[in-house]
Amino acid sequence: MLELGKSLDAYVLTMLELLAQEAPADQFEDLVRQGRSAGMAAGELERLVGAKDRSLDIRQLFGRRQQREAGLSALVDTARDLTLPYSLDSLLTVITRRARLLLGLDMSWVSLIDLADGLSHVRTADGHASAITIGFEVPTGGGVGEHAQDRSAPFWTPDYLHDKGFVHNDIIDHVVRAEGLRAIMAVPLRHENVTLGVLYVADRNVRHFLPGEISLMASLADLAAVAIERTRLMEQAKAEVVELEWGVTQARNSSALAHRLRGIHSELTDMVLSGSDLHLLVQRAAVELDGALLVRGTAGENLARSESWDQRRARSAPDPVRADDPGFDRCCLDAHVEGKPVRHDSAVGGEFWACPVTGGRDSLGTLVLHCERPLSEAQSQLLVLVAQAVAVSLLMERSTAVAEGQIRDELLHDLLNAPQMPPGQIASRSRRLSIDLTQPHVMVVARPEGGSRGRSAVWASSYAHRMAGLKYVDGDHIVLLLPGDDPASSARAVSRELSTVLGHPVTGGAAGPVTAPDAVPAIHQEARRCLNALTALGGMGGTASLKELGFLGLLLSEKQDVGIFIGSAIGPVLAYDDQQSTELLRTLEEYFNFGSSPTRAAEALHVHPNTVSRRLERITELLGPDWQKPAQALEVQLALRLQRARHLLDSAAGDITR
């Protein structure tokens, strides 16, 4: 540390050193006391105190950022843990332990709603507890849990028993008093608009939860709800498999067949739980079914298929599944309605079987089997078992995608709303998501013109994942940051695909490219301006960037680069004049000056009308056949005027220099 005299600068420099060393707060206070003891003047002492306060503010800011980064890192680790296979009780134990440790609290517990009677019971608790035990029935009519469920959002109180801002319940008050709890937060566990239960965290001291802590618990609850629903569906699927196997054994009265089916299903399930992808699962199942397998998604897209499918497709003309075969689509729908495999004759020989792939009451897709011989009873039963294994695989992929998607959404949200984040923190978070923001990226802001916000958000998550980009839902707008250097092309691709999915138009504005994270907010605003301009011009359902908007883009741009606009409108003509020493530019000016009359333009240029005609033909080759249509003609004339003005200004500047 510096030897301090009475120089204010020396004291301030020492404070900066303390700040860099992450010194404790009392050393900053000691420095002020030293200055006071050294007889520092009142004005300088006041400035020293101000410097101390600013230093402590910065120190607290660093602490909050480190705490937030640690919380996000812990949340990522939690998301990975929740994707592992657990029983429901084991999963809830992991959730409560993680919840308590994330905020360093005394207790946490989870209550789940029983689907049979609608009552809520405590399923697991973590931390020293005497009154809140497993099986405790949470009464209705009051408490923070009911408020959280009613609002579908976290609800907390710094001092439960003394807080009159919500309705109390005598039974809950008694339990809280017995446990000695003060601060309590309740976070609803919701999955696809259905409340599964409530996650509680509590402390035995008065505590005001910070916004970052509330956000962290909300994210944990979202991940936990997905994991709980997935585990329930897996346990339900296992129970259904056990029941189906029992039925097969009873119906066939053949222990050999039952053993074979159990063995194949066990092998397929082990493949899923060990991390094998859907393609390997389908390939193995196709061998056992002696046919060709295809997994179709809910939108009719192909998710996976066996090699035998491609081989039969190569031998068949037309395709075994034709896009213009309405009978096959009806077969898939009938399979989901009836909840069992449905047969459909193939147009190329053999037969198709469509089997629904479901998770609980949700449709996940359709398993399609093409076989050349009639399906046996054993194969029919095995087809159902394969569909269940495919459902488990899709559910595990969905839960992992949801967990990662939330982290990716938070990164784009922070890039848009907190552009002053340290570069190292941005690079670290991007690297964990395999995103390189130093490479060119473009911004697309899309607005569906017909609602369907839920479907739009689901599609956007899938599209961003496919394109290795980021997505953020802002009200009715889908915000996408995508790799690439052509914003107009990216916007058209987004609008085209999302319009097909939703069945109604999608308007999009685009901007970029940029190669730095701190430039993301600027291109976001630029893309928004393009979208608003399209709306004002009645161009709903279209897409545009500043370049495509022409002179409107020039007006909307923050930099207003006149040279770029002139180049886009008449650049080929200027280049041709420079290379060939022609007068196409002057011909254009006179042509428009005399009301698009070649004859009068020829008189002004002192050339034959045929010469003007040939020049206009050359201009058409350079600018395209539409340059005389009103919209493009307006841009050409504006570019001519701007070019003339720039030429005059350059000439004037040259005269002054001389």
What's the arrangement of secondary structure elements?
Elements lengths: L7 H13 L4 H13 L4 H41 L5 H16 L3 E7 L6 E7 L10 E2 L5 H8 L3 E3 L12 H10 L3 E9 L2 E10 L7 H42 L2 H19 L4 H12 L2 E5 L5 E4 L1 H9 L10 H13 L3 E4 L5 E9 L2 E10 L5 H41 L5 H10 L8 E8 L4 H14 L3 E5 L2 E7 L3 H16 L3 E9 L5 H17 L6 E2 L6 H6 L5 H19 L3 H10 L4 H8 L3 H15 L6 H28 L1
Parallel strand pairs: 15-16
Antiparallel strand pairs: 1-2, 1-6, 2-3, 4-5, 5-6, 7-8, 7-11, 9-10, 10-11, 12-14, 12-15, 13-14
Characterization of this structure:
With 658 residues, the chain is of the alpha+beta class. It folds into 5 domains: 72 residues; 148 residues, GAF domain (Beta-Lactamase, 2-Layer Sandwich); 145 residues, Beta-Lactamase; 122 residues, Alpha-Beta Plaits (2-Layer Sandwich); 96 residues, Arc Repressor Mutant, subunit A, CATH 1.10.10.2840. The protein is 58% helix and 15% strand. It has 22 helices and 16 strands. Strand 9 and strand 10 form a beta hairpin. Helix 20 packs across helix 21. The N terminus and C terminus are likely disordered.
CATH topology of the largest domain: Beta-Lactamase
Helix content: 55-70%
Beta content comes to 15-25%
Distance between the termini: 60 Å
Characterize the overall form: flat
- The tally of beta strands, per DSSP, is 16
What average pLDDT do the residues reach? 76
Structural class: alpha+beta
Strands across the major sheet, in which order?
3-2-1-6-5-4
Tell me about the biggest sheet?
A: 6 strands, antiparallel
Whole-number total of structural domains: 5
